[in-house]
Amino acid sequence: MAKYFDVHPESPQPRTIGTVAAGLRSGELIAYPTDSCFALGCRLENRDGLERIRSIRRLDDRHHFTLMCMDFAQLGQFVHIDNNVFRAVKAATPGGYTFILPATKEVPRRLMHPKKKTVGVRIPDHTVTRALLAELGEPLVSSTLLLPGEDEPMTQGWEIKERLDHVLDTVLDSGECGTVPTTVVDFSGGEAEIVRRGAGDPARFE
After folding, report:
1. Kindly report the CA angle at 152 between 148 and 155, in degrees rounded to 5?
2. Cys bridge to 184: 42, 62, 138, 196, which one at CB 3.0-4.6 A?
3. pLDDT tens across 81-106, in order?
4. 3-class secondary-structure state, position 180
5. What are the φ/ψ torsions at residue 48 (nearest 5 degrees)?
6. 41-76 residue pLDDT tens
7. What is d(CA 1, CA 102) in angstroms, rounded to the nearest whole number?
């Protein structure tokens, strides 16, 4: 049965955030709010958590997982990024964008696209997400909480708890999230290619 925590959206209770971060360190899989919609998340080396995300969403090995990063210093440990791309990404973060970039050796192979050796990264603009990332001190491996056969992500924490109680360890809630996933921009070829139009304005990359 999943634990359920409800925190203030602008002033999340530090003790609760600390409890959720401790659960992540012990191998938990969580559902948590972001600036686009709810996401599933676990630690980088949590192989079981990753497989559970794949199972919940029925994902194949070509799916790009996202590393949810606290800041640019953290993001830079996990992807190769040249000066031109750096400036473009920096100008659009934090915000509703996911960027696909070549992965560094810090990224476990199981998280990369099997052929391209790329990974998704993003820096969210959400108070609760940022508080959790700051407390955890490392990125969260994430995927939008969009269930198979459904057109929109789940938006209510209580509903997530109710429907996924048997497959999650923790639900962190801070009120309703949006239903629009991030805009995904692939920079792995050096130029911006918009893969998915979503929460972030794609015009700056066209």
Report:
1. 110
2. 196
3. 999 999 999 999 999 999 999 999 99
4. coil
5. -65, -40
6. 999 999 999 999 999 999 987 788 899 999 999 999
7. 37
Are 170 and 20 in contact by the 8 Å Cβ rule? The answer is yes
CA 161-13-66 angle, to 5 degrees, is 55
| Number of CB atoms found within 10 A of residue 26's CB | 10
C-alpha distances (whole Å) from 151 to each of 101, 148, 154, 159 are 27, 9, 10, 16
- Alpha carbon of 140 to those of 41, 47, 107, 137: distances in Å? 6, 13, 12, 10
d(CA 101, CA 19): 32
3-state secondary structure of 54: helix
The model carries a pTM of 0.94
* Cα distance between residue 164 and residue 31, in whole Å: 9
> Encoding tokens for residue 66?
């996202």
Beta-carbon contacts of residue 82 (< 8 Å; ≥ 6 apart):
190
Please give the distance of CA 121 from its chain centroid, rounded to a whole number. 8
CA angle 56–116–194, rounded 5-degree value: 75
